[in-house]
User: Fold these one by one.
Assistant:
Number 1:
Amino acid sequence: MRWTNWAGDEHCTPAVVARPRSVEELVAAVQDATAAGRIVRLAGAGHSFGDLVATDGVLLDLDRLADVLTVDRAAGLVRVGAGIRLHALDAALDALGLALPNLGDIDRQSVAGAISTATHGTGIRLGNLATQVAELELVLADGTVLRCTGDSDDLRAARVAVGALGVIAAVTLRVVPAFALRAEDRAHPLAATLARLDEHVEGADHFEFYVFPHSDRALTRTNRCTSAPPAPAGRLRTWVDEELVPNRILDAVCRLGRRRPAAIPRLNRLVAAAFPARVRTDVSHRVFTSPRHVRFTEMEWALPRAACAPVATAVQRAAERHAVNFPVEVRFVAADEAAFLSPSWARETAYVAVHATRGCRGSRTSARCRTSRSPTTGARTGANATCSTQPRWPRATRSGPASRRCGPVWTPAAASPTPTWPVCWGRSDEPAIRRHLPPGG
């Protein structure tokens, strides 16, 4: 079986693909792989843009571990199988009158994949999805099931671990009563948006913006919690706003841009002008998420919120040196100390993401943006940045020094750490996190 990620730029042909239907079958699959000395990798929805999954060893597919297992309304906790997709979880919670407090704009990911890579939405008072994890069950390489709970270092290490510590079997998430959002999509001059950035970020529950290279229009999205009842738009307006412009027109523009790169500046300005202004009120998960049919690859950096405006400007200018007709995206997340590898460890964080559509040379664009300098601070937007930037884990990062600004090194609390970290769990080209964990695997 050949595995391909969502973007279509990562592939592998594993020797074994295991699809466990229970924790017992998952334990057996891990034990078999350990006994055979094979590398184990985990596949969720394939929505990561780096080399976290590719293997010629054992690929574990958790799609059959996708049930809602228990619901504790009083405590605000829901326990789910690791393979459940976010869109399925949203629907199940909605039927129960519950919701996740925040989401990203894509809901195709598995829960385990989303938390393991610190997937995030936007909202300066809300953390990434991993901060919503109250407990998880981790299958270690010897088949032991480790229950990570409470305020333990085990849980802080396991929340965001990019699959390096074991296989997540089940997750207990904190949930809230279902709520509605009033969403405003507006275009504003980019310079004015950056000048008033703190006002925008702090004055809303959720604020983000997009800007196309060669365009001076910031496409802003501002969401606020509301007690007003949901009033979704009609089918035709929804199709225009969520399908025609951001998917079909954007896809046509990207295809034309690949054929005629010299036309990209004009095309970008045209498509930015075509994005519709709208105001709507709907249940939270339908506001947070949007259909994304145009396939792309992405590189995203996490940086101190205060550095956002100059770095976003520098990234925009760097992207304009290449054939890029996909917007730069900027979002904001609260500081947290919930996960040692959280890109938002102990600081309010802005995320700046550049994208390249499938078939474009995205790596060259990412490299240019990664080494661009802030015009006001001189700070590089790369791994050696004086403003402490770091790539968010699944975003097209490759193996390299783990010198990013993260939390402290973890000393595992397990009584017998040796079987927890066998050499077979990783190899020399494993993501850098793995090489910095005991005992040298």
Note: The chain has two domains: 64-177, 180-391.
Number 2:
Amino acid sequence: MADHLDRRNIVAYRMARHFLTKPLPAGQWRRAAAIGLQNTPPGTAALSLALRVPDLPSGFVEQALAVDKTLPQAWCMRSSPYVFPTEDLPVFTGALAPHTEEEMRESLGGVARLAADAGRTALDVVAEATEALRDALDGTVLTKRQMGVALGQRMPRHADWFDPDTFSSFTAMLVRPISLAGLFCFAPRSGNEASVGRQAEFNSLRQRYGQPQPFLDRAWHEQRCAALADMLADAQVKAPAGLDDDLSEVLTVADAGRYPVFSPGDICPDNNLLTGRGLQVFDFEGASYHSVFLDAAYTVMPFATCWCVFRLPPQIRDEIESAFRGEVIAPYPALCDDEVWRPGLRRAAALWTIDMTTLVLPTLGSADRAMHPVRRPVPTMRQLLRYRWQWLVEQLESADDLPALAQAMRGLLEATGHWNVESMPAYPPWR
């Protein structure tokens, strides 16, 4: 042991403990990320991790933040955004959160004085802001500017020091202890602005109560796309040139960071009830944050994963799609643009069609059967598959989009022409 410590000893020790003297292998990136990677300015966390784990693939941090959710980002130490492993969320949030009035006043700085002038404690104001932000972030993602506006609209009247149009310094100070409480974390950036959502709260609940079924994550969809080649071979359909490229393009809508929404997942009619209080959703086994396009596809296919599928009249289908789109353009104005909306919708529909093809086709054997063992009326499995393939081919070919995938679907239609099943009928009210 050294008799004394000098500057060089201290710096060498700290560099070693921060994995800056000996790089870590790629498989140990969590050890490096567990120190907490400050991400100011944006992109610094990726650079910090690359210095410690140089063999990580390009774009690893972006993928972990936006898609895999293995590296959340939240306001924590020094009121700054930090990136850390999801399993360490309590360490970087709840463990640092202020709990007493004195701690909260220290955290809020000048905001605490404004609260006191209004006759409110710091804890009271943060509790009110927490509920306001919980409501504002319910099912959506906000930029920092939008978050400031949303708080200004929802806070009680005594908080007239909120600027309703900008993310003021007061608002920034107020929401940071809320971040430490685990209510929200940073979503992928929207242009040059940071965005926030309630993914942190959801991830914390998943850790507490167990992971939901991996029904909508990218890994699930990647497996389904990979299985398509085997399905084509079994049906004696040659995989068209360019199919891999089309499948890679389809998988872009499996990225949770692309216009994310919180959804129960399997949004089929039989997973909801119409009550005197409105629509009640009761099936959350596939709940997750995922791209809005995966839900939007249900409005036009219709009902991508359901057994209760028939044809909708075009006018009814268009009304359903329009109503859905009218809700989601509020948080995502870019979805007003058909050049964004239509391709996203086609890719999501393609992804769901591939999912159902690779799940249902291998189970058929030589005999057809109903989509549900008891409920009637229902289509048969062969009816449903051919309807999905035909509908997708029409959508892709009319838009001159994903030509190799359209050719593969047309090949399945030709290979199963001997099934001799009836065309999909309309829903009973329109027969």
Note: The chain has a mean pLDDT of 85.
